[in-house]
Amino acid sequence: QVQLVESGGGLVPAGGSLRLSCKASRLTFAVYIMAWYRQAPGKQRELVATITGDLKANYTDSLKGRFTISRDNVKDTIYLQINNLKPEDTAVYYCAARWWGSLNFDYWGQGTQVTVSS
What we know:
Helix content is about 0%, strand content about 55%. It has no helices and eleven strands. It has strands at about 5, 10-15, 20-25, 30-40, 45-50, 55-60, 65-70, 75-80, 90-100, 105-110, 110-115. Strands 2, 4, 5, 6, 9, 10 and 11 form a seven-stranded mixed beta sheet that branches. Strand 9 and strand 10 (about 105-110) form a beta hairpin. The model has no long low-confidence stretch (mean pLDDT about 95).
């Protein structure tokens, strides 16, 4: 059973930074495309960024600039660096994985809460 475990969330003041982590296990990590999604209260889940096994990153256009996705294929871990946090970044952030040949993200973590105070 694939496991994705997020960490690094918390309560931070506006303007601060956070680095979220997602540790994957029980999968051949390098052949999986990984992603960060987020879901704010009362809103639909939103894709933040994806990263391939060969480290190609893509971002949702509206979120480019303050978010940086990265991965460590030795540690089977991805990261999301968020800078200049804003109250509207408050959400549960989820890690997701899909095999490179799949259309859908089949595996999800439990999420980590990020709360930004104004």
